[in-house]
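Ticket opened by: R.M.
Priority: normal
Category: complex prediction / small molecule

The reporter submitted a protein together with phosphoenolpyruvate and asked that the result be attached to this ticket for the collaborator who will pick it up next week. Submitted input follows.
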Amino acid sequence: MSPWSPQSWRDRPVEQGVAYADEDELERVLAKLRALPPLVTSWEVERLKRLVAEAQEGKRFLLQGGDCAETLGDCRSDVIAAKLKILLQMSLVLIHGARKPVIRVGRFAGQYAKPRSSATEERGGQVLPSYFGDLVNRPDFTPEARRADPRALLDGYSHAALTLNFIRSLSAAGFADLHHPEYWDLDFLSRADLPEGLRAEYKAMTDRLSGALRFLEALGEQTVDELTRVEFFASHEGLNLHYESAQTRAVPRRAGFYDLTTHMPWIGERTRAVSGAHAEFFRGIANTVAVKVGPTARPEEILDLCALLDPRGEPGKLVLITRMGATEVARALPPLVRAVHARIGRRVLWVADPMHGNTVTLAGGVKTRSFDAILREIELSFDVHEAEGTRLGGVHFELTGEDVTECLGGGLSEADLDRRYLSVCDPRLNYRQALEMAFSIARRMARSG
Ligand code: PEP
Ligand code: CO
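Result attached by the on-call engineer:
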């Protein structure tokens, strides 16, 4: 195999590559990005890898969630705090159902680059480049906004840094002290749209949880700290390899190269070709890496990818995020699980993304997803893993802590969708839908024991 470097991907075919008109400007920006400090540290990356290794052994569960496309405009305290709160509350519900600690991973602080099914978009006879996320261009339909602008890479970097800074400060300041349910932002829960039953269920759950914590502490149980530590990790699709590779470096006293834009980058469904640029870049980084896997994936190609990304079978290294669709999962998941399990055993964390295989476009052109289909894919994924003797070790959602109207069900019907449809890309679960989803998953996990 040819030698790897942070730039060796440039010799491979780049799916979803960005055409920058001014190469010199791009190189100036990349030189600046290379010189700027990393967004995350190798210690954090290694800590997440240890936690993922424990999840692979069934000792933890992973919750990953956030926007489909994060925007620079949403780099605001209320939006970020709302996202942390819903992830935190979902994680508490899951801890209670699964009876194990939950790793919280946001799709944030860098989820600014989007793959598109078409490189161009046509409106009223005018053809312009598609919107590829705020890391590349802007959504307005004008030639200026749609031009791929290298400076957007620096804007993305600085907004990711601002986001991480706020998240770290909130976590360090006891944003959620799990010993005090009265601080778990219950007034956030008293919002009008939340059904009384859901609110009561959450209240009863947090009361039981805090009672149990006090009991464990009274016994001098060591694990309480671990259980109650509120940590958030960051993740995004590692799509723009200029951005990722500029922040990829060797660090003192550690072997290998770390992609320090985020803790856990993932390869998307459209860019996971084993001979492509993304696989080449990802094979050389020390981070935990995730791969999205859709219903057309052949088991052999996923095995080749696993061998390339994790040749040594390193604990905590590999996460496979399956996104099959509720109608496909029972057919498409078993052969894949069987093949991976036979070849590499438990050294992979299986995560279900029930969003990306369940997108539908309504007659009026609005993209949406149904709560029921999303839940069905999760439940069927649990069933498949149980039947195959493997384990579903995590879930991956597009969600927001705000009251958007993008997905159907959980109180919303088609007529509601245009009320507050804010996503610039795929439809997200809103606050209530996300919390209800967590309770449904927790009940399922409590049943399986
Ligand atoms: C996404 O996670 O927003 C996405 C584009 O997913 P996938 O690569 O699975 O289609
Ligand atoms: Co999406």
